[in-house]
Amino acid sequence: MRTRGKYTAAVVAAVLTGGILAGAPAAEAASGCQWAPTTLPAPGGYRVYGLGSGDGAGAVAGTLQPASPGGKRVGVIWRADGPQLLGSAFGLDTELADVNAAGVAVGSSTEFGEFPLNHAVRYTGGHFERLPDPPGYTNTQALAINARGDILGAVGATAATGVSTTVVWPADAPGTVEVLLPAPGWQVQGGIDDNGTVAAAVIDWSTGTFAGQVLPKGGAAIRLASPVPSGDVVPTAITTQRIAGYVSRAGAFLWNHDGSVDRALPDLKNVSAMNSAGAIVGQAPDGSTLFLPPGGGPAQTVTLPGNDTSPGEVTESGDVFGTATVYSPDPAKAVVRWHCG
After folding, report:
1. C-alpha distances out from residue 172 to 88, 126, 148, Å
2. Where is the signal peptide (predicted)?
3. Which residues contact 165 (CB under 8 A, 6 or more apart)?
4. What 3-state DSSP class applies to 161?
5. What is the pLDDT of residues 172-229, one digit of tens each?
6. Which of 193, 164, 201, 195 is nearest to 179 (CA)?
7. Cβ–Cβ contacts within 10 Å for residue 184, how many?
C-alpha cells in the first residue's frame, strides 16, 4: 500500500556507530515506550539516494547511488535481513517508489537529455519490465502498488511537460493503462488502496487551488470537502477506511471515502504515511516527527527537530521507516527504522 506524502521533517543530531544512531536520545512516547532509531547500512560501494514505501511488513523500496561518480542509480528493497539490490532497469538510472507483499516493486528509469524522460517500470520474477505508455503520453512514472498489483502512476505527454496526469495500470487487465484524470492541469497523486481506489489532487482553475479527489475503481470522482473557505486540499495517504492529507494553512486532516471530513489532526502539519489500522506518521509544525496511534490518542514524538528526516513508511506493527542525516564521521543520508519498545 502506498502513501505518497514526501515531506521534510527533522531528526536530532546523531552519530552512526555500529548501525545505530548513537547519541540520539530515544523519544519517550505517551504510552511509556521509547522510540529508538536503528540505522540500516547501505551495501558497500553505494550511498542512499532515497526511500519510498513498502509492504507494511518491513520491506521498503528505495534507491541507491554509487559512492563513486559515473555509475547509475539502482533500485533496492530494504528487508529485515538486509538490502536486496535489484539493479538498474535497462541500463538506465532507476528509482523505486514502492513494493508490495508479493515482492513486486515499481518505479521508473530515466533517460537524461535536455529534459529527463521517465519510463514506468515494474520489477517482478527477478527482472524489470517496462509498463505501457497511455496513447499520447511518453513520460511515465510508477508511484505506488497495492496488495493485488494495481499500480498508480503519473504521466506527461513529453519529457518537456514533466509528469502530472493520474493513471493506473490495473492488475486485472495486464498490458493496459487507465487515464483517471485526463483534464489538463497540475495533479498530485496521494496513493492507491487495496480496493483500487485512488486519492489525488487536481488544480481547480476557478480558485487557483488544489482540490482533493477520491477516485473509486470504476466509479465517479468524489471531491474531498475542504474544512476551510479556501486553500489547497491535498491527500497524501489512503487506506480502505480513510484518506489523510493536509489543507494549506490549516494543517492535517482525515477524510472518509464519501469525501466528508472525518476529523482534524491538530498535532500535524502534514501526513507522510498511514497503515491499514489507521496509525499515522507525519511532521509537526516545529519539525518534529510524530506518530499518531490508531483511533486517536496522544501523539508520540518519534524524532525531535534537528537534521533532515523524511519518514516514508509506517508498518502494520507500528515501526517507522525513513531517511535521516547521520554522521560516520561525515554527514550522509541513511535509511533509519524507528521502533517504539
Report:
1. 27, 21, 9
2. 1-29
3. 137, 154, 155, 156, 179, 181, 182, 187
4. helix
5. 999 999 999 887 789 999 999 999 999 999 999 999 999 999 999 999 999 999 999 9
6. 164
7. 13
pTM of the predicted model, to two decimals? 0.91
CATH of the domain at 107: 2.120.10.30
The domain in which residue 124 lies consists of: 2-22+32-340
Q: Which three cell numbers stand for residue 201?
A: 489532487
Q: Which residues contact 242 (CB under 8 A, 6 or more apart)?
A: 254, 255, 256, 257, 262, 274, 278
285 forms beta bridges with: none
Do 130 and 121 contact (CB within 8 A), yes or no? yes
- The list of the chain residues with pLDDT below 50 reads 1-26, 28-30
Residue 251 located in a structural domain: yes
- Alpha-carbon span 308 to 159, nearest angstrom: 30
50 in a domain, yes or no? yes
Please check whether residue 27 lies inside any domain of the structure: no
Domain count, the chain: 1
- Examine residue 45 and state whether it is found in any structural domain, yes or no: yes
